[in-house]
Input
Amino acid sequence: MARTKSPVVIGGLASVNAVRRAANSGNAQQFKTRPSATTLPKEKQTAAGQKNKSAVASHAKRTAMPVKHELLCYECSYAFKVSGMLKNIICPKCRTALCSHDITIDTTWSKSVKTIANVIITETGIVKPCEIVASDVTIAGDAREVSSIKTGRMLNIDKGAKIDFSKIEFKDLAVKAGAKISFKEELFCNDAEIAGTIKGPLVSEGTVTIKAGGLLQGSLQGVHLIIEDGGGLKASLNIEHDEEELKDE
Ligand SMILES: [Zn+2]
Output
């Protein structure tokens, strides 16, 4: 798989130096922002990610355009954009009226949920067999018995989370401070941000960032690895770049 277009992804303490490097090499526009919520204003993504629209983006910043959302229909997987409030959203393709509420699960729960917003399973939440589909999912409770969890983007694992990765589909992974997870089967993700402890064979197609206080044990097969000051690594590594983008470090 060609990775020559992989953006350089930066995070936290590594940002300053990386930005300086990019500025020097003229690659600053390749950096992508790290959307952590569904409500990230579109103009920010545009400004960082799409140079052909940079003029529009800078104009948008000045004139405070309505917030735009990039959405993914949970029924037909059609990706589309909406500006303004996330209310009364209808998929332009399959015409489904989409739920756009954040849903918090803080008790024993067995009802399937679908939303284009977020699902949060708190520390008191216990999920029984049901299906969960959301843009971002945050787990601090017990989700081991869930039938399936499907996130369009982000899986946040908080302190206290009990999960079975074989039931969870996600793109990016965030292991929050205090969270401890382990797994035996290879775990695939795009980006991973590790501020807690993770143990097992991790495979990443994006950037793995180990934050201060975070610890990665086991093995890592990936493309980009950032270890911030205070981050721990006790794993066998296989990090390969197709580009020479980190050569000048
Ligand atoms: Zn649809």
User: Anything to note?
Assistant: The pocket of zinc ion is lined by residues 73, 75-76, 78, 91, 93-94, 96 (CB under 6 Å).
